[in-house]
Design goal:
elongated; alpha/beta; 3 helices; 4 strands
Length: 118
């Protein structure tokens, strides 16, 4: 039996303090479900990237993530090139594993992201 892939979801945030809590709960539940069904590896994780927010996004992220093991957050001081920043944040993530499937999700998406298929 083949090992399931490790999934890293990179979620860029810019002035999203009102959406962080709901997004974290929804995405964490989905990750737990995918892990339980052996569709993704146990070391899969979420990585929120605060891309220079001017509101309390970073403070709210820090408070929410203090009890989460499979979630990390990175702060960039100013809004930068998204692709470049995602690669840098992934490299600096506290989760050091080989990633088989990195995905980006827009925090401000009004509708559900496309389903993840493995």
């Amino acid at each position: 039996m083949q090992n399931p892939p490790t999934l890293a979801l990179l979620i860029p945030c810019y002035n999203e303090e009102e959406m962080i809590e709901q997004s974290l709960a929804t995405l964490s539940a989905k990750m737990r479900s995918l892990i339980a069904s052996h569709k993704i590896a146990k070391d899969s994780f979420l990585c929120f990237i605060d891309d220079g927010s001017t509101d309390n996004t970073w403070e709210k992220l820090c408070a929410l993530l203090s009890t989460k093991d499979s979630v990390s957050a990175n702060l960039t001081p100013n809004n930068q090139n998204l692709h470049k920043q995602n690669l840098q944040n992934l490299a600096e993530s506290s989760h050091k594993s080989t990633l088989d499937s990195p995905h980006n999700i827009a925090m401000h998406a009004k509708s559900a992201p496309p389903p993840l298929r493995f």
